[in-house]
Specification:
Length: 300
């Protein structure tokens, strides 16, 4: 079976100031998601699953899903605050869902093949999807063998503000640890982020990081459901706590339950973290079109 692409599109776009998932950056109004779907389809993916919030369901179907009707199989699932396992409780004052790993868990009912996970607002590039597809096609029937596409931190920063990244340690070809770090930025040529004690940690520009481009097999859902139950018991009363993919992956690696291969890519990442990033993304897309990497109009 062909692998599935799970696109995390439920984020509220708080720093950006709007529903950036629906923002056009291509010459014919294409979104970053359109380019992701186009790259995935030509790499060999057979199905797309979007994770969204139900409050923009109508707009999303009209402006996004309708484009793919004659091109690839599409499913949509919904991430809501109340989407928790039976018997679990949480802080009722919470105003947004539970983070990336909770979003992935929403795909459990509609995914039965090896699958990739990406952010809706990140452009990962053609080669990345090709590498992911090869790994996932070879993973049919396997368990506990995952992958992540690694990027160099120096190539993933925003000129408009700080970013959060999963900072990786790699042994051979495999991930040995990953830690979610926030407020990473470049200051006077030095890449750094603040630690809990108020001091700063510096990073070399070639430090590998996760841009939330993962490859999993369906057994991943069992791990994430169990881990989410534990998370809710420990942190469910915190109004802004988040259940992250890197945190669980790191725990599973430390427990020696899984391996996670780090795939190298020649693709260049870019994305819209802040509103000011949009014009740069438009320019980069136009250059890729001029170079023949994409047609001017993706979907006829």
């Amino acid at each position: 079976m062909k692998p599935t692409l799970l696109i995390l599109a439920a984020g509220m776009g708080s720093r950006y100031g709007g529903l950036k998932q629906l923002d056009g950056i291509g010459p014919c109004g294409e979104t970053i998601m359109d380019y992701s779907v186009f790259d995935a389809k030509r790499a060999g993916f057979g199905k797309i699953v979007f994770v969204i919030r139900s409050n923009f369901k109508e707009d999303f179907f009209k402006r996004i899903v309708s484009r793919y009707a004659n091109h690839i199989d599409v499913d949509v699932v919904y991430q809501e605050i109340e989407s928790v396992p039976e018997g679990c409780t949480y802080n009722t004052e919470r105003t947004k869902p539970w983070g990336t790993n909770h979003a992935v868990l929403m795909g459990k009912k509609v995914i039965n093949t090896p699958f990739a996970v990406i952010n809706a607002d990140d452009f990962y590039g053609k080669d990345s999807y090709g590498e992911l597809a090869k790994f996932l096609i070879a993973s049919e029937g396997r368990k506990n063998s995952y992958c992540m596409v690694g990027y160099q931190i120096g190539n993933t920063l925003s000129e408009s503000g700080t970013v959060s990244r999963g900072v990786c340690s790699v042994e051979g070809e495999y991930l040995s640890s990953i830690v979610e770090c926030g407020k990473i930025g470049r200051e006077n040529g030095v890449i750094r982020y603040p630690k809990a004690d108020g001091t700063f940690e510096t990073l070399e520009s070639d430090t590998p990081v996760s841009m939330n481009m993962w490859g999993f097999t369906p057994d991943y859902f069992d791990y994430s459901e169990e881990a989410f139950r534990t998370f809710l018991k420990e942190r469910g009363n915190e109004p802004t706590s988040e259940f992250y993919i890197p945190t669980m992956i790191n725990d599973l690696i430390v427990a020696k339950k899984i391996t996670c291969k780090v795939l190298r890519t020649t693709s260049k990442w870019f994305g819209v973290t802040y509103a000011e990033d949009k014009q740069q993304v438009i320019s980069k897309i136009n250059q890729l079109i001029a170079d023949g990497c994409y047609p001017k109009q993706l979907w006829e």
